[in-house]
Known about the structure:
The chain is α+β, with helices and mostly antiparallel strands and 216 residues long. It contains five helices and eight strands. The chain is globular, with a radius of gyration of 16 Å. The N and C termini lie far apart (36 Å).
Amino acid sequence: MSRAQSHSCEPARAAPAGTAALAVPTGAPAAPEATTGRPPELLRLPGGLRLHRRRSAHAPALNRAVRANLEHLRPWMEWAAEAPTRARTAELTRAGTAAWEAGTDFMYLADLDDAPGRVVGAFGLHGRIGPGALEIGYWVAARHVGRGIATAAAGALTEAALALPGIARVEIRCDQANGASAAVPRKLGYRLDRVTEAAARAPGETGRQLVWVKER
Length: 216
């Protein structure tokens, strides 16, 4: 079903439901800083699309969006196996705020000028793939698929990432079966660097992961 093709290259890992980003567990050693710089907290894009830094105040709207899109996200997102509680989403949103301040992860929510505050997608720059690089993860709500939101947002985040000090490479990763997701880096001029074997953790996955790369 084409509607089930979640626009997300967020690799399926053991991330809890309700967020498109990984959080450092309480008490775990802090991850090394990915960059000393910080991307813009607000990005205004054509068509009234806005990307804004995700903050604790956004947790209720994010929780509603995730719960409304579980069936849409479940084929590609391990964390979409069950509905998140509001408390869990709030906890993970606070962790995302801390990660931004630490310079390791930069999480955004997308909304539209004609519906401010209504989450139409979630995006992130994640410093989990080694020094000098950030990975883009994203998903778009089912009713907004096909409007170019994922491509526009990922393009803006690619530029923002490569403008940061110490970042020379951006990656987008998705399962080989997720054709809608793979179309995004292809449209943005990323090159397919390799296909790797990865454990299939979500129902739609094949275990073959496409790794798309763009460099300075």
